[in-house]
Protein 1
Amino acid sequence: MGTRLLVIGGDGAGMAAASQVRRAAPDMEIVALEKGRWTSYSACGIPYLAGGALRTIDDLVVRTPDQFRADRIDVRTGHEALSLDLDARRVEVRNLTHQRTFQLGFDYLHLATGALPRRPDIEGVHLPHVHGVQTLDDAASLLEDAKRRRPARVAVIGSGYIGLEMAEAFKDRGAAVTVFEARQEVMATLDPDMARLVAKAMREAGIEVRTGVEVTAIDKAAVVTEAGEVPADLVVLGTGVVANSALAAEAGLAIGVKDSIVVDRQQRTSAEGVWSAGDCCQSINIISGAPTHQALGTVANKQGRVAGLNIAGRYTTFPGVLGTAVTSVCSTEIGRTGLGEDEAAAAGLQIAVATVESTNAAAYMPDSRPVMVKLIAEKGSGRLVGAQIVGGGGSAKRIDVIAAALAGRLTAEDLIGLDLSYAPPISPLWDPVQVAARALLPGL
Amino acid sequence: MGTRLLVIGGDGAGMAAASQVRRAAPDMEIVALEKGRWTSYSACGIPYLAGGALRTIDDLVVRTPDQFRADRIDVRTGHEALSLDLDARRVEVRNLTHQRTFQLGFDYLHLATGALPRRPDIEGVHLPHVHGVQTLDDAASLLEDAKRRRPARVAVIGSGYIGLEMAEAFKDRGAAVTVFEARQEVMATLDPDMARLVAKAMREAGIEVRTGVEVTAIDKAAVVTEAGEVPADLVVLGTGVVANSALAAEAGLAIGVKDSIVVDRQQRTSAEGVWSAGDCCQSINIISGAPTHQALGTVANKQGRVAGLNIAGRYTTFPGVLGTAVTSVCSTEIGRTGLGEDEAAAAGLQIAVATVESTNAAAYMPDSRPVMVKLIAEKGSGRLVGAQIVGGGGSAKRIDVIAAALAGRLTAEDLIGLDLSYAPPISPLWDPVQVAARALLPGL
């Protein structure tokens, strides 16, 4: 027998690594355990399935177990890793289909156990009409339930990306939708001034958005808050996720912020021959230098690739995260990258801030729509720190220019000088991010 | 009297400088001469006026002479600078309305004389139904003529951005349009393999594109080529522009590539107290380090801003150009930045090239459209050199990520690691530019 790599977790972070190893180390034996039914899928696509833009759950599967098997990756779905013995180099595995437990040895181990939906500790949260949305198995159960119940009133608890996208999805299906957010504003990843624009767009589209309202219980037909009951036939939890790191922690691996697995630049954990990637592990924020937990598909796939190349004996590193994210809800695009005002303050950075209104195309074009850009830079150095965008079509992807500028350690003045593109149907002459940079200069 | 700044040329490069000086040096007297009727306008918007998306020429005027005058900038439209005496610090001016000539003194001079449409040296090129498209005055004359003639057949000679945009504009008005290009492919700013995709999209939209065909003459009712005559009621010249630098050259200023005015990083010409910006002056390509002539509104406005700040006694520099440009024709977006294959070779760079097909949104989304990305990096260092994009909606602006990456001197590996944004309706998980970077790695 050659060397055996055992991958725990069959989604992006696990299978990206497995695929890299397969290519770069053709002789290595690869076994991948997946608790659920699917491998390598797009959980971010679940709202579009719920909303009806996609027809079947299979649309979200990037690569099936059989496709991996054809590539000599021994994928075992319906298999859960129960415990891990690092000294003996073996894992205790439960075959969920046949209800059997067995031991599986490994030489190298890659932990890609992902994240679990956070379930608020309130009465009724485990009722059958209350759904988390983290895995395709979650999605399957939600869709089946929605089909059966045909909910007229849907409650979404939490207002992150998935929460807002699910709210829109059920609105598109004709339900009356209420979003509950305990904080004063939606979308904790945005600064309050930008988040307010998102809430406004959602309300204008007919979604009830209730901020500053804590849900205290869920019962069969309603969501209970301090301010009274709101009828709901179906409840979606958009209350974020927690790193699924129990297996690693019990085996004695170093655990970092928010229970995520500590890794180095090569995605190596604290134990020899054990790597980790994706929603279960910790990242370093490029701007603050601080450890952070970022459960995003882009990060998971990049980290998985890096882990795989290193497992195969190549050398490559993961540069860290900026927290870049975009979405589109109710005809409004939202993007963010780097640090917000509070995050910058927490990182010890003194900042200048500019928020400007521009347009996504030349203002004179009939289809042009407003774009708000908030740009943050460090005082003195002028170095960019972060940005947030809320606006019409084509707004959000502009955040990537800032992400690239942050990676290149560019200043606000550099951003003004950037040779960015312009054509009347696509952009104003000064791109909105440059308009923001110009407004920022006097404050630096 | 205080110091007098004389600006020659009332479009972006001239008026951006004037506006900066007005703010930063409130006491300076500013006189701006403009040969035509309009100031500070969007010539890039002319095709959308011609195609009917905009209603009046005034839509394209960003700031009128009266608005500048209210800001104590003495704009004189219908005034042409005839000659320049640098020793005597004065210019000979022709008032075109009253047909009078007079002398005007200055302390500082800013030359923003722009570019002139290149008129091919063929018979009939000066006929009244043959139109260049460089200034709003050109646009006014073209629109008036098109209204009168109601052309059923339109010929566009040349296939740069404006040529292709004008071709689509007349197609949208119901005319049969033929584009003539003497070279083997359209769009000299793209590599041939990418340009071919553009020609294909235009043909599929019903525009006749004839490449490798030289126009030898124009007569009243047809365009004459080596391969026969093609009927045409109206002819648009999209044959590019030449720097309008005669005034500067005659005054003895240093002239560089393609007759453009030589400037330093502060936009200073070879003469003391004389600045220049925009389509009349030379730029440095950031990647090759070579002087180039780039007639683009974005560059003009940035250079104008830099010139203005320096004229006002501040210090700032123009970082150079990447040749970033985008457009949208026939539902296809096109973007380019940095060097193409031939330009890289001419700059002495050994390169690796990857061309990939990806999608503008997650491939499973019903509205997703193909995107071709060509990415070029330097061998060995892996440093990015340039990129070209042709694809569906939202494709082109992705070129700005590469522009920012080029400014930050990032490598293909850096690009793979960039924390770019993802959401199914807006982008695949790996952005198309990162898919290209991954394909590029093995060749480096």
Protein 2
Amino acid sequence: MIIGIDVESGEKPFQELVQGVIDSSQSRKNIEFVIVGNSKNIKKSFPKLDSISSIGIVHADEIVYMDEKPVFAVNRKRNCTVNVGIKLLREGKIDAFFSPGNTGATVVSSVINLGLIETIKKPALATFFPRVKDGETLILDVGANPDANVENLWQNAIMGLSYYRLVCNKKEPTVGLLNMGGESEKGSILLKKAFVQLSKLNNFIGNVEGYNVFNGSVDVVVCNGFTGNAILKIAEATKRYFLEIIDELKEKKSSSFFRKLIFSHLEKVIFSNEKLIKKILPRFFGAAPILGIKGLVMVGHGACSKSDLINAIDFASFLFEKDYLNSIIDGIKKS
Amino acid sequence: MIIGIDVESGEKPFQELVQGVIDSSQSRKNIEFVIVGNSKNIKKSFPKLDSISSIGIVHADEIVYMDEKPVFAVNRKRNCTVNVGIKLLREGKIDAFFSPGNTGATVVSSVINLGLIETIKKPALATFFPRVKDGETLILDVGANPDANVENLWQNAIMGLSYYRLVCNKKEPTVGLLNMGGESEKGSILLKKAFVQLSKLNNFIGNVEGYNVFNGSVDVVVCNGFTGNAILKIAEATKRYFLEIIDELKEKKSSSFFRKLIFSHLEKVIFSNEKLIKKILPRFFGAAPILGIKGLVMVGHGACSKSDLINAIDFASFLFEKDYLNSIIDGIKKS
């Protein structure tokens, strides 16, 4: 496969992401790479890049900054990295495109340049949350469409189920509607209507809440993009908060030698434990495809590092080999 | 002051909460208590209750269960604990009322029996989140009004600021709008309009996200009740998740004697540290007044324990002594 990488619009300097592509290319012989960015600067920083046959560069003049209005920027900056990359995808010159930049701009450019899958009204972003026991829980939408109506929530459920089947290899995943309580009559008028609509799915288990996300009682959680975005960010902030107070405690002056000893080793133990790291950082952390558009476009965290990029590349390759787009389209057709 | 306690509609047996009232009465000589519940059963379990002069009982026949529809239940079960307690408050027989039961029912009964403060359109529930450094962050609404319009968000900001001033003793707290990014043009049409409206407040600092809640960069966070409820629950679930994986790690069979030693002491160290407990359980955890109604009605967690109840009583007493209701009304008048 050929994957396009926007190395310019993340928060890290392009050098870090180009290095990620180079590192990735050394062990992934079945992947070709197209770096999208300022070709002059990239060649200056990496004079030997030309000698790597599996890596090409496509020039893009501009980037969309994080604080720009997506629709406005994508239309004005015709030759920005996301537009250039997504057009390469449209033309079949690449098979997948990844950008760690302004998510809204990537979504808008994808909808404009690739279009939505037939019958789909809005794109959606899905994120995996870790669980206490095995597996992951998928939440969507986490920000592509802030105001979801009943049809959008229904389509998110359908796409989420297909995506979950594909990634987690589970034949009949369950789906739940995020609500303010488990009872069917909870929430706003829209949520009550969505509950009725989703009840048409055999896989629907009803309303779910925060604790269901972590305990494995549901596989796919459907919600509007505003709330999904808020819970994703508060969960990340809570995790960071917890690590920080343990840190603070560790550094705290203490009269107890034993306590000092415990905390001096605590961090090392936690972070040397592979299982725990897997749990804190769920699989495919840092990259998610934009569901509902006609192509494999993946968005990453703005702070995407070299190793995050390598993960994103592996995930894109995994999805491509699993025939991601046709699986999503098939799921929609059958619904 | 006189405080009414609904001992029946929480998840714990009434005996636990009656015992909480008794324990509280022994050290809080300035408070009188009115227990609301099934008087026959209560007297049977606590035959010596009559001898405590500061505790009275008012009989209520029924309770609203957690899974009942609030409006329906409050109207049908005329003599349920929340209706009885809130009517005592309306008649001036008590100064505050606390219920750990169905939150929706307590909100509905409050609106019906006490009414909303002049100009206020919807009630709101506010919860304090802990911070890494000192202080707390207030989030509202966390569930009283799922679909907030611009006016509701504005009124939540006004009430939240008054409430924060009162509780945290800070003259000029800041207020932010929960959104999908810091930039002013983010989010739905409603959020963009709310941003413009909130900009009229000197205390408004703009859009905020999950991490702002914990880092102290904002004091009062305004959002709709559906999203507020979701982030409250996901934050609690993330905290529990983190404690569980540490627990799991601790119990894990390990070849390292030293690692076993660390984890056998870890929990003890964490939970014996007063500062950390304060941080994990923020002040006034487990009880929040329903802002916007004409009276001091406090809701608690369904799982409210004896010690949670004692905290709730102390918090109600603190609010009453600070002239809570008039402070909120004054704040609204000045806005």
